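input
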Amino acid sequence: MTARNADHDGGGYHDGHYDSASYDSASHDSAGRDRTLVLSLGSNLGDRLANLQLGLNVLGGGLDLRAVSSVYETDPVGGPDQADYLNAVLLAGSSLPARDILRLCATAEANAGRVRTERWGPRTLDVDIVVYGEEVSTDPRLTLPHPRARERAFVLVPWLELDPHAALPGWGAVAGLLAPLPATRVQRRPDLQLMLPERPSGGCTAHNLAARDRPVSGLATPGADTSCS
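output
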């Protein structure tokens, strides 16, 4: 996400590469329960809003998307000099193993043309798993909860917008984590909006994404009932 909005990179990748074969499958919950998933999205290259919307469209092909935050413009945090980011947080549900969700996040990034050339550098799209239910993993390829989420206002502010009672497992209330953080610009952009992809009739099956790979207007209402019928 940002130049350390790019710092968030560690939640799923090790040195910029995901190796599913070496992921410790014992570290995740394999019970197949539907769990709440918090994802953080960011972009600072190209058409930033279109990149975020594309990310939602791809993620909607494998997850039960429930709510998306407002769009926020944020300062880069660390890393090389680079442009400001657009960030948003997505709430979803899934019973997939965490590594499969990580693979879906990588697919969304690839579809937006992301190329990993510089650690913490600018990117067309960054998608990070912040929290997946109560799952805890210390695997460096997929650390859950995300190890730096508690330090990132660009994650906490939009998350708190969606869920005023949000809590980061092991660290406590998001509101309490946000209060002592150094001041950084996390500015809501009411002129920019994201929309959750429409569900196909009959449930949460994979979406046809081709017609949705562009920005659309409208914001999913936090707390709205977007569950599958």
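quick obs: The chain has four helices and ten strands.
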